[in-house]
């Protein structure tokens, strides 16, 4: 049944969403923030490694696995939710660069992008992508909570 509903293809919107989410990270790699707590040594190295594998699998699934019955991309409630998630995520990065590193900002930088990917997979009827998205989300939240909130 799964084989009948999905095909390998290329969903450029999946790649675009990933790149939009990654823009603040690219800036952060090049320009350190004041009070840059994210540059501290992670204490969740195994979880981080698993999260990285899940992230690669997530992007691959969002970009390369296509549901045969997906509709043309339009402004649906899920797409609106994705846009909202991206705006909140960018706001959290702006706050981070102004020196705010509280629980809300850290959770906004960890949970909100994961929700954007989840909403995208749901909108595109890509149930296969939900598995690596779930794994990435769990690892990303553990990373944020253990390294910056406990």
Characterization of this structure:
The protein has 150 residues and is mainly α. It contains six helices and two strands, in the order H-E-H-H-E-H-H-H. Strands 1-2 form a two-stranded antiparallel sheet. Helix 2 packs antiparallel against helix 5 and helix 3 packs antiparallel against helix 6. It starts with a helix and ends with a helix.
Estimate percent helicity: 55-70%
Radius of gyration over C-alpha positions, nearest whole angstrom: 16 Å
> Which word captures the global form?
globular
Please provide the ordered H/E string of secondary-structure elements: HEHHEHHH
| Gap from first CA to last CA | 44 Å
Strand composition percent: under 5%
Sheet bearing the most strands, described?
2 strands, antiparallel
Task: Show unreliable segments.
Answer: none
Coarse structural class: mainly alpha
Give the strand order of the largest sheet, numbering strands 1, 2, ... along the chain.
1-2
Quick check: average pLDDT?
92
Count the helices. How many? 6
Defining key terms:
2 strands; 150 residues; mainly alpha; two-stranded antiparallel ribbon
Summarize the structure.
With 150 residues, the protein is mainly alpha-helical.
What's the layout of helices and strands?
Layout: H1 2-5, E1 6-8, H2 12-30, H3 45-64, E2 65-67, H4 77-97, H5 103-123, H6 130-148
Antiparallel strand pairs: 1-2
Helix pairs in contact: 2-5, 3-6, 4-5, 5-6
């Amino acid at each position: 049944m799964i084989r009948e509903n999905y095909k390998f293809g290329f969903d450029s919107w999946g790649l675009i969403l990933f790149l939009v989410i990654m823009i603040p990270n690219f800036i952060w790699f090049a320009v350190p923030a004041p009070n840059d707590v994210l540059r501290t040594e992670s204490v969740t190295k195994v979880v981080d490694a698993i999260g990285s594998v899940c992230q690669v699998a997530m992007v691959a699934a969002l970009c390369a696995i296509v549901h045969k019955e997906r509709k043309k991309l339009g402004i649906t409630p899920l797409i609106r939710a994705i846009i909202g998630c991206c705006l909140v995520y960018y706001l959290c990065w702006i706050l981070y660069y102004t020196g705010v590193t509280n629980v809300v900002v850290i959770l906004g930088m960890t949970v909100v992008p994961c929700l954007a990917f989840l909403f995208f997979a749901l909108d595109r009827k890509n149930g296969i992508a939900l598995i690596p998205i779930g794994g990435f989300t769990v690892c990303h939240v553990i990373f944020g909570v253990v390294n910056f909130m406990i």
